[in-house]
Each structure stands twice: as structure tokens, then as C-alpha cells.
Batch of 2 targets.
Target 1
Amino acid sequence: MIKIKVVLCAVMLTLLSNITAQELKGDELKSMEKYGGIMGDKGVIAPGLRLSAEQMKWWRDAKFGMFIHWGLYSIEGKGEWAMFNNKIPAEEYAKLADKFNPQHFDANIWAAVARNAGMKYMVLTARHHDGFALWNSPSAYLHFNSFETAAHRDFVKEYTAACRKAGLAVGIYYSPMDWRFPGYFKPLELAENAERMKKQGYGQVEELMKNYGKIDILWYDGGWLAHKGKDADAAWFWEPVKLNRMVRNYQPGVVISPRSGWEGDFQCNEGGGKIHGPIIDTPWEKCLNLNQSSWGYNPVQNLMTLKEIIVMLVNTVDRGGNMLLNVGPDADGIIPDTHITRLKEVGDWLQKYGESIYGTQPGPFQPVDDVYGSVQKDKRVYIHLLSIKDTLQLPLIEKKILSCRQMSGSPLKFRQDKNGTIISLDGIKPDSVVTTLVLETE
Ligand code: FHN
């Protein structure tokens, strides 16, 4: 037991070094740590509320989506925690809504960028912790939404239409917490005010589930109270089982994240921390930032390289996960050109190697950290090589291997016997990002 604790501490230290590289601190860092690299605590369990494996299949096959953090905080360009981190009073912050009138917002462009990146779903922050809603929301406290302020637009309506037009699954992020309510920080002492926040939360979730057609993903974020503990610790307040039974009434098949306090349909692993270890049997998703400066728009560009993105993708997919990669459009709704260029490079890689990603299941080999991972589909096994030596030694599997080749090249010599399979990599021409092998099996 002590050994496990030592390992976990080492993992958390690695993660912390990575997290601090993104310059998170204080409560924002605590918010990230809830899911930073280690699966978040399980929320409350509710029989019959989770989707079946069949209902989850499309999501698990999709593998790759675009996260979009966009809202009033995109004006400031200091990340989505600017209101809290800079202690901006709610009345002061609300004035930003008078300036939020994006003339170049076009969700069809966002959808095209996602498609060109090989992404199969999108998740937009319909409302973040600052309370500003990007849709016509009668439940919005103090009318704090884009339809009743300067923009006079229902961005969620435009966004959901654009997703569907582009053949992308529709994801909506919703943060039940709202910094404008003193009761968020003192839910017991200021119970009435906290209850007002909860009423807004239920009303807005119902609006989003009822008024915008079929929603494929509901990505709750920020169930925790007063920036303390885990989302599950606030289940006494939010009553997430009641909330999500209401959701299921409108959207029976929607895939729900684990951050409302209920366990959700998948587990989250957040941030740029490395993915390693064995295959994870339950559905899970790695969410992280293309621009490592912040989720919300930030002119400081610290983009992940193409290799970092693809290595993270194969490490995630080889362990049964999905990857949700975030972009932060500016106040005018423009995704920076640098992001578009990098995402197109990802799409080009997926054009060539996507058959080793989409619709695959992890295995049959357990990953070996920094050496290889594997996925399988029908009679094919794909091996993602993270390092190359003269030979690759694979454990014994039942299936008989009929042939082996580099996905982008020539056949490779191999020998399968009772001890496993040895593949000769001598003379292989490594691919520039991740070298992928294909094994045909009987
Ligand atoms: O506090 C939020 C943060 O701003 C961002 O939205 C991330 C994205 O997953 N979620 C929370 C931190 O875990």
C-alpha cells in the first residue's frame, strides 16, 4: 500500500510540475487538480441513470473532439478565471457584456476548423463560472446573457446548427456554479442566495436540454462549492440525480460528464499531464489546452507541438480514452490562425492514420509507457510506436498474425511463437510524428 502511495505522489508531483508550467495558481489550480491527471472521484451513483455501452458506442468511436472556451473573459484575454483571479466585482464585470458584440462570430467556421482537424464532436462553454450565458436564457440571473445584452444573439442556437450542418456531434458545457452569488461561497450561511443560484442552474439546464434540438454531450463543470473539495461533495446541494433525471427526460441519450456531482457517463482526466499506465476499462476523456496559456482566449501563444498532440492522442486512445482539445477564440469569435494551422496538421495526420484511431478498441496488448500502445478493429491490430529499436517484442496473443507492415510503408519481418511475437524494425523509416504498424490477423 505504501508503494502505491509513493507512486501516486510521484504521479501528482509530475502533474503539478506540468500544471504549474501552465501558470495556474490558487483556486484555479485547485479547480484543475480535481481532475488533474488522475481520474476524478466518482460522484454519487444512481441505478439506471448511466447510458448503456451501446448508447456510448458512438462517443467512444469518435475519439477526438474540440473544446471551445468562449465568453466575456475572451475580451480581457487573461483566461476564463479573470473575474475571480483579479477580484473584479460582479457589477464591474457585468459591464463587459456591453462590449461583447462579436461581428465576426461564425460557428460554421469553428465547425470547419474542427472537421479539418479530424474532430468528431464539439463542446462549447454555454456558460462558465462568471455567469454569462451565450443563449436566450430567461432563467439567467439579472438577464446576464448574450441575447439581452449588446450582442442580441443566441450563440448557442447558431453553434448547435453549425455543428449539425458540419456532421459534428453537439456538445454543451455548463457550469452550475456562478461567482456572482455570495451563496456560492457560503452555501450554508447564505442558503437563500445559494438556492437562487441553484434555481438558475436548474432553469438553464432545462432551457439548454429543451430548446436546442438533440444535444449529444452535456459537459458539466464546477459542481464544487466555495472552491472546496470535489464536485461529488456538493451533491447534497445540487441534487445531481434529480437534475440529470430531468436532463434524461429531454435528452435520453445525451452523454453526461462526471462534474455535476453524479458519477456521469465517463471519467475526466484534465490538463497537459502525461498519460501512462494500463488500459482503462471505463469510458474516459482527456481534456487539455492547445494553447497551454489558458482555456479562454490568451494572446500569449504557447501551443502544443504536432508531435505532443499526436503522442497525447495515441497514448489516450491506446488506453481506451477520448481526447477533447481546447481552443479559445478571441472576443470577436475568431480562432487564432496559429491554432487553425496546428489543428490542420493534426487533421492531415488523421487523414493518413485515422483508421488506427477512430472506431478502435484498446489492446490486445497492454501499453508499454514510452515504447508502444495498441488498438484493434475487426481483424487488424495497430501498434503506435513511441520509440524504435531494432526489434519490437510483443506478448503472446491468441490471434494468429498473418502479416505485418508499417502503415505508411513496406512489410516487416516478424516471428510469432509460443512466447509471443518479435517484429524486426531494422531499417524501418520512422514516421515524422508517431510510427504506426498494422498487423493483419486471422
Ligand atoms: O475551472 C474550470 C476551468 O476554467 C476550465 O473550464 C476547465 C476545463 O475542463 N475546467 C475547470 C477546471 O477543472
Target 2
Amino acid sequence: MKKISVFATMLVLALIPFNTVYADGSPKLRADNIDEVLQAMTLQEKVELLVGRSDEEFVGSSDQMGHQMQFVAGAAGITTAIPRLGIPNTLFTDGPAGVHIDATREGVNRTFYATGFPVGSCLACTWNTALVEEVGKAIGNETREYGCDVLLGPGMNIHRNPLCGRNFEYYSEDPFVTGEMGTALVNGIQSQGVGVSAKHYAVNSQETERTRVDEQLSERALREIYLRGFERMVKKSHPWTIMSAYNRVNGVYAQGNHHLLTEILRDEWGFDGIVMTDWIGKRADLPIEQVLNAGNELMMPGYKVQEEDIYKALAEGRLSQDVLDRSVRRMLEYIVKTPRFKGYKFSDNPDLKAHAAITRQSSTEGMVLLKNNGALPFNESILGEYVALFGVCSYDFLSGGVGSGCVNVPYVVDMVTGFSNYDIKTTPQLTEIYRKYVDYAKVKLQMDKNPLMWFLDQGQPKLDEIEITERCIRHEVNEARAAIITIGRQAGEGIDRAVEGEFNLSSLERNMIQQVSDVFHEQGKPVVVVINSGSVIETASWRDLVDAILMAWQPGEEGGNAVADVLVGKANPSGRLTMTWPISVYDHWSTRNFPQDYDMYSYQRLESRNRPIKGITYTKHEEGIYVGYRYFDTYRKDVAYPFGYGLSYTTFEYSKPVVKLKDDAIEVKVTVTNTGNVAGKEVVQVYVHAPEGGMDKPAKELKAFAKTGMLAAGEKETLTMTIAKEDLASYDETAKAWVVAPGEYTFMTAQNVNDVKGEAKLMLK
Ligand code: BGC
């Protein structure tokens, strides 16, 4: 009964046009009367506007925090409506790889699927900001057409360590790449008249105890590595909102961190949107006035008790009326931009077909060819023939990660279908074994579900691998022209990845690669490994066994088609790594201070309530700025595949770079020629070596990149890249300032951080 009446009220309220003037004379919100509306607001209205609505009438019986049942089922959160003043509810939906809403609604006889785009790490590996912007436009369009106002993304945290469970949602270990990709996605999304919430600001680099871990790092590392990507994006694309992270940064929760949210974000970078908390609710150990004073306007998903806390803080003089009003004003400034406020009539019917084409193109372009001894692309004679597909993910391909960053997709193209679209068949016996197993394993998984791990149930779980006997492999080799082994990995919110079986291969996977390679190579037939994972895995111990390795990531719903596009040579791989692939995970400096093998249900968790435990309640960034290639390159450590690396089916030559100072920027020009036999695209990376004698600097830092268009064999293109002088600066902690050291700078044009093609020097004053 209660639900019906609440629903009826909501319906009536939703139907009232928001900018009509009422008989009671109260002003109706417009873009140009915010102060007037602010004055007309009661205290209760002000307070309610700062706290999201996750009361029962909005979330129904859902056990997921904030998960909405009103308006758009499955949206992640909602803000308060004040119909008297023409203020509508506004809606937030996850996430970085596409709109995450429920695919089905109670009593509604249709579906609400959204397009599954490549995960962040795959998108970044395209190094193609124009393409990422196109993806952003499509995601923004779906956000708007499904009736939401803000997309909770992009994920812009740094890949500090390969074990972080959410690296798939993020772009890179490098802040410049992160900033460029974030800018492109935000510009694309916001071009559609909806907003973003760039997240998780800041230093949310691990999932273990993410809601309370204290990330302890130097001011220099904070600014140069963890904030610089956000800074670039904020300045270049003006995001409507930012999401403050769960964790603490140098002892202070990000959501209550004045240094991060006001001094840096607003005062230094000029951010003029709102900051919302990540989905935490009330924190017992953080007074609400600290959150508001710090510059965090909105509490998400929002609980009544937080409103009571605001009243109390005001009454006791801990919170000033000015700060309250400042926060409310910023909320109103945000609200007048939203489609809901503008009365936009969404269709609930975005063009999923057109967006599927965009996702296929971006996923092929993000895939990285790690090894190729000539086996790829498959010769045309394979058309009409058989390949043997090993590994459960060949048949149950992972389109994305799990947790809030998943998308409820209409379908996932598996590799059987991807190949059959090229008239390449998969061997019948093996296909039947795996297909039957996949059916069985999915039912079993449902039975074994752990109700406490609901956040992992959002999205597609990875099924356990099965053992394929040598006898079976010997049967397959007679029919198949090639073997393809898919190694799959799943990861997501709340849990970091384990070393054994997640970063490293399991013994079952290792044996499979060994046995398939032995048997297929006996008959001179190639073996290709496809990695279907959002994050880096170990390759050094087994890569010599196989002929080719393709990092396919979790590339979205068109995954199987995209893999086939690359393997048959319809698409020439042009993805390049935006993170280092170490030989061993322990080679990363940060691994010494990264939590491992943490069982969240064990005594560790209880014990850590009473005393600080390394990696759980605090994480020291001993490595400072030496994250990723900045460490491996400077300290000359061998890696499996360096930052920036990726193979192509063609070859490229670089001209000598021409570097000039133009006003306050450095211009780098280089001509790239396709010297091979097939068309392809190349990514040119510009690394800078700073003059000696200044601050301690990494041997090289990426400061610019550009991707050519599709170059036919023999064709050339001149790329011009510009580096702002201030981008060469390092943060001097003593001077509390960004400093560009004077002296001779070396600008290197490179195919990856370990493969410099040309260099030029320039004196800077
Ligand atoms: C995640 C956010 C997400 C939010 C809403 C949180 O647990 O950390 O990334 O946007 O939930 O679903």
C-alpha cells in the first residue's frame, strides 16, 4: 500500500512542468534566478538537496546501495526533487564502459539493454582520442535516452600496480595518457547534454579495504602522478561533477579533504561543478561539516541520518550558513544543466545497432598484438576451414568487468560466432565439450552464489577452466588449421587480484598451453593465445611456447567479432600498451607496498580495527613518482612488454624529429612512412628527458602522442604535436610550486618507451 501511494505521488510530481510559476508565488528555478530560488528555500529543502535519496521508496527491496527502482530501474542514485521550486530529481548511472541500468523492469514487457563498450584500459590502448570521443558521444547519448543526467565515469585512477581489482576501469599507469583519454571521453559524453562524474578523486589505487585505507604519499607523487590526469581533464573538458574517493589520502578521507577538493581542484584548477561522495553513506568517523567545508556538496547514495547530521552541525555552529548556501548554490547550478530540468523527453530507445559498430571499431583498435612470429594474420586459405578453440572464455567471452562498472549488454559475441562470421568453423567435438560445460557451469555458479558478494554478481562472472586431455588435443589437431587458446580473467570492485591464478597462470592453464603447443607444433600448426582480461597478466614464463599473443582485453559486446577482425587481418592491430607488463608482478616497486592475499572475511579485518596494518589500513607509496615505466626505464629493469609497446602487420619508419619552441610551447614534428605491405596506423610517442642538475626526474616521461590515420603501404603522414612548457614542470615540495628546470631537454620520438626512433634537443630558459 505504502509503495503504491508513494509511486502515485512521484508520478504526479514527475508530470508537473518544472518551470511554471505557482499561485503561491514561489520562484521556479531557471538558469538565471539561482540566487532568488536559494533565498526562497527552506532549511529543510536546502539540506535535502545535499543528500541523495536512497530511502526505501526509491530503492525498493534492493540490497545494493542506492540502486534505484524509481524512474530508471538500476540507476545508481538520485538527487532530491523540490517541486515547489521547480527542482526535479536528477539521476546518476554507472559507468565507464557504458550505461549500467537494469535490463528488465517489473511489469514492463520489454528490455533496457545498453551497449557494452571496451573497458577503460582497452579504450586507452587505442591512443586514439578522436575514437574515444566517439565512444563518449555514444555513451552520452544512451545516458540521455535512458533518462539519466550524469554518467558515473570516466574512471581516472592510476594503475599503480597490476593487482588492483579495478584497473580495467582505468586508463593507464601514466597521467598524461589518463588525462588525454579522460578529456576525450568527457567531451564526448557531455556533448550530448548530460554530465559526467570523473572518479575516484583521488589515489583510489587499491580495492582492499578501499573505504578506509590511508594512501600515504609525497605531495610530489600526489600531484605529478595521481592528480595530473584529473587536472588535465578538468581544465580541458569542464566535467559537471567529480566523485570523491572512498579512501583517505595522507590521513584525511578524500571526501573531507580540503586540500584536494578546494585548494587544488577549485582554487588551482578552476573546477566549477559539484563534488559527490562515492557511495558510502554516513561515516561514523568523519563529521559532516568537514565534508561540506572541504568542498564536497553531495552525499551519495544519501541517507536521512546525514540530513540530521547537517541540522545538528548547523545548530551547534560547526557548520556555517555560508557553506550550506554555497553548496546548495552549486547544486542548483548543476541542476539547471540537466536534461530532467530541461524537460527532455527521452526515448528509452538509443540506437544500439549504430553503437555496436562504434564498440567494434574501438575494441579492435584497442587490442594489442604482443607477439607474432608470422602466424598472424591467418592466411586467406583458412576461410572455410576449422580452428580449434581452447579455453572456456572462447565460448563465454568476457565483454567487461564486474561490479558497478559492468553493463547489462544485449548480447556478447563469442569467438565461435566471431570466426563463423568469417566463414571459419570451430572443430565440432571441442565446441560441444565447452558449450555443454559452459551451460553446466553457469547453473552451478548460480547455486554457489555468495549473497555477501552482491557487487561481484553485477556483470559476467568467469567460469572455471576445465582440463582438456592430450587425447582430445590429438583428435583436434587433425581437423584444425590452428589452435587458439583464450586465457580469461575477471576482476572488479572490492577485491584486488591474487598473484597465483590471477596475475600468474594456474597450473591448469599452463599445462593447456604446453600440451596444445606440443601437439600442434608437431604438425607444424600455429598456436595463438588470446588474453581476455581487463588487466595485465604474467606472460614471460610461457610466451616462448606459442606463436602469437593478442591482448584482447574485455572489449565490449562485439568482442568475438573484434578478435576475429584482428586475427584474419581485416583490422591491422594498432593498439599500444598504456601500462608496463612486468616479468614478475614483484618487479613493480609498488608491489612491496600493495596488499596481497587479503581475505576480507578473515581475522585481518577484525584485527585491523585495533591497530594499523600495512596494506590494509594504510599503504605507503615508497616508490613515490616511480610508478610503472618511470621506474622500469629509469632503473633499467627488464620487462615482458614495455609501456607503449604493440606490434603491427606492417612496419613504419620515422623521419628525424624537428623540435621548435613556439611561444610557450614546444612543437614536435615527425613524418611516419608505412614501409610494409599492408595498410596500418602508427602511434608516435614523445618522451622527454629533463636536464641534469635539477630535481630528481625519471629517465623519460611521456609528454605527447599522436596516431596516424590509416596509411596505405608506402604512404606517409606528418604528425605535429605540441607540448605546453608547463607540462615539463615537476612539483617542488619545498617551493610548493611547479618548476620547469632550465637547461637542455631531449625530445624523443619513440615506438615505445624502450624503442626510441629519433631525438632532438632544445635549450629552455
Ligand atoms: C563505486 C563507484 C560507483 C558507485 C555507484 C561505488 O561503489 O566505487 O565507482 O560509481 O558505487 O554505483
